[in-house]
Amino acid sequence: xxxxxxxxxxxxxxxxxxxxxxxxxxxxxxxxxxxxxxxxxxxxxxxxxxxxxxxxxxxxxxxxxxxxxxxxxxxxxxxxxxxxxxxxxxxxxxxxxxxxxxxxxxxxxxxxxxxxxxxxxxxxxxxxxxxxxxxxxxxxxxxxxxxxxxxxxxxxxxxxxxxxxxxxxxxxxxxxxxxxxxxxxxxxxxxxxxxxxxxxxxxxxxxxxxxxxxxxxxxxxxxxxxxxxxxxxxxxxxxxxxxxxxxxxxxxxxxxxxxxxxxxxxxxxxxxxxxxxxxxxxxxxxxxxxxxxxxxxxxxxxxxxxxxxxxxxxxxxxxxxxxxxxxxxxxxxxxxxxxxxxxxxxxxxxxxxxxxxxxxxxxxxxxxxxxxxxxxxxxxxxxxxxxxxxxxxxxxxxxxxxxxxxxxxxxxxxxxxxx
Length: 419
Description:
Elements: E1 2-7, H1 10-20, E2 27-32, E3 42-43, H2 51-60, E4 63-68, H3 71-75, H4 78-84, E5 89-90, H5 94-101, H6 103-112, E6 120-123, H7 126-131, E7 140-144, E8 153-156, H8 159-171, E9 182-186, E10 191-194, E11 197-199, E12 204-206, E13 211-212, E14 215-217, E15 221-224, E16 229-232, H9 239-259, E17 266-275, E18 278-285, H10 293-296, H11 304-312, E19 327-334, H12 351-355, E20 360-364, E21 367-370, E22 373-376, E23 380-388, H13 391-402
Parallel strand pairs: 1-2, 1-4, 2-3, 4-5
Antiparallel strand pairs: 6-9, 7-8, 7-9, 10-17, 11-12, 11-17, 13-16, 14-15, 16-19, 17-18, 19-23, 20-23, 21-22
């Protein structure tokens, strides 16, 4: 079978890498891919936003399954387009993808189906949003309603900061149309964690736990990013908490998509905060997480293609999964200036050394190949993942590998997995 992976980041590199391991996969195409994905299959110069070109390519190359990486492609309706053309594709339809593409839509879904979440309000005018601040205590969260590459959440510690965030999103349009509407939420304190689950209308298959580190600097300080590193399993989720999450989040979600007639056959990735009052849903994601995928797939022993197909064909309840019991740690290496302005085109050296290290895999995110050189092309550049018998062993191995890689202005946190 030929497989097409849509996207060009670290998550897509991990997906292509794992799918290539399936004995049933003949060729892997990645659109547009990066310097790393070119080692797993063939990169295709089609942007994820070019839906009709992707459809035509899938037809021409007899693609048996398309796997969507980025959220904005799901929000644009690529699943509906492919399915209407008779092609198999992994992911929720456009309406169900609104659970990620609109925070307002997701919040109302949660309230309607009794899924625990933060108290909130939604506003379509900056003046109204500012007046509503009196209803909340500080700190609070100001969120762009639409997709903002994981950066559309501002934690405001006082009224001045909240009003500045509102103006930034609604008046200055920092996140474009994503900030036409804002959601203001009470601040939830606790430990943030990640749950991934394959979901269709009949069943739900939960992956092992993972924990992301969103803030830019050590000690969970600084601005939010798309993720500066992950560990798996999470150090904060035990069997009791997992059962509570299943009972209070996943089961009501399954009931909700059925009652609301939302066509969801894909990956559900709720962002959770473990508060003193129990787990609360921060947001829903409708695709594999990045960089969570970079620690989950190296632990997966079952054929990923089998899992994706079982999700689409509503046969998840008939499949079992096998996971590596060891721990995984991913260190994200970023460009100087990320998540703000940053320079690209920096030569990356040291990758060849790391490729020889056992139980280490470097997943490319913002990279491109020019001749015999690999250059930076994005904010998050590489994800250095290592496996170890313990979290500390995996962490030590990952950092030793990351230290071997260099590019001008490279930056990474030094406390992934230690807090």
